[in-house]
Every structure is written in structure tokens, then in C-alpha cells.
Amino acid sequence: MPRLGQIALVALIALGLSACGFALRGSYTLPSIISPIGVVGEDSTTQRDLIAGIQRAGGVISEAAPLRLHLTAERITRQTTSIDSRAKAAEYTLFFELEYQLRYASGVPATPNRVIRLRRTYQFDNTRIVGKYEEENTLIDDLRQQAVAQIMTQLTRLTADDLSPEGDIPDTPDTAKASPESTSFTKTSPDATTP
Predict the structure, then answer these.
(1) CATH code: domain of residue 47
(2) Greater confidence, 186 or 106?
(3) Which of 56, 140, 147, 169 has the least C-beta neighbours within 10 A?
(4) How large is the average pLDDT for residues 177-195?
């Protein structure tokens, strides 16, 4: 019965991984204090990706939720980081910045304003401009997904103690401290992934 033995081994490994707290990247479990939750912001790709992530994690999206996640600003900028022998751009760095804050339905902040900052450097070939713009859009999508993953990770760790009673938190910018990538610009290679 080697087949039965293989099934038993796979089941044992899965049980061991779940017991130590291992979870596949992208799989989240939201605490009950933020379900239902509202997501407020401009109708953007980031907002839609975040709503989809919350729903995949079992969260409920509702405009009448007591807590709302406000996407207050999203900025994407590009900077030349090196030039070639013809004085044309040979390398660019993309900067992606996303500000967000949990607020009560009344609009009063429940947590400080947080900022996620990411960056990605890539080579630019002036002879393949169309392909390079497509590559840039792909990198922007990847940065957006990393930002959404960081927000989801922070939401899963949220406890009632992290929420301030209405009126206790001033609406001032703060930098998220979930990971080094969320506190400062970090250079990553094009195929790097966020842990």
C-alpha cells in the first residue's frame, strides 16, 4: 500500500506546517474586529485589489461598516538613476507610495495615518521603447500588489488594543513599521518578492 503511505505522509506534513503557523503567501485570516469593513478611496486598481484581498480572506465589505480603510493618497514617480554613453537614460527607478488609515464611520481616525513606500530599479533600452513601457507597467502592478500584501498583513495582526477610542488619535502622518520595505525606499531586483 505505498499509495496510502504517500497520502499519510502528505497529510502529516500539512498538519505539521499548520501547527507551526505556516501559511501560504497571500493567504490571510482577518480578525473579527474588522469584518465587516469599508474601503474608501478613489475608484482605483489598488482599491479594487484590496477589496478582493479582504474578500478572499473571508472579510465582508460594507459601506455601513463601523471601521473603514481610507486610501488617502497613491503616488507613482519615475527617476533616472543612470545614463548611457549617449547621455540617454539607461536605468530608471520607480517609486510607489501609498498612504492609508483606519477610521471610524464618523471619520475619526482609529489608527495613525500610515505610509508604505516601495521602489524598483530597472534597465531601460532606448531601442525597445514600447516593450520597456510594458515592462514598467508590469513593475508598477507588482509594486501595487506588494503594497496590498503589506496592508493585508497589517490588518491580520490588528487587535482591539491597536484601535484608539474615537477622538484619541490625531490625524497626522506616520510611517508603517510592518517591514523594512514599508519604512524606507529599498532597492529590489525585478524578480524579487516581498516576504
Answers:
(1) 3.30.160.150
(2) 106
(3) 56
(4) 37
DSSP 36-61: SBEEESSS-HHHHHHHHHHHHTT--B
Q: What ranges make up the beta strands (E) of 128-169? A: none
Average pLDDT over residues 12-23: 46
Residue 18 falls within a domain, yes or no? no
Residue 141 CA, distance from chain mean position: 11
Cα distance from N-terminal residue to C-terminal residue, the chain: 39
Check the CA dihedral 119-75-158-184 and report its sign.
positive
The predicted model gives 31-37 an average pLDDT of: 91
Look up residue 75 and give its three cell numbers.
503616488
Whether residue 120 lies inside any domain: the answer is: yes
Element (H, E) at 18: helix 2-19
Residue 108 falls within a domain, yes or no? yes
Residue 147 and residue 96 in contact, taking contact as beta carbons nearer than 8 Å: yes
User: What is the total count of domains within the chain?
Assistant: 1
Q: Specify the residue for cell string 473571508.
A: 58
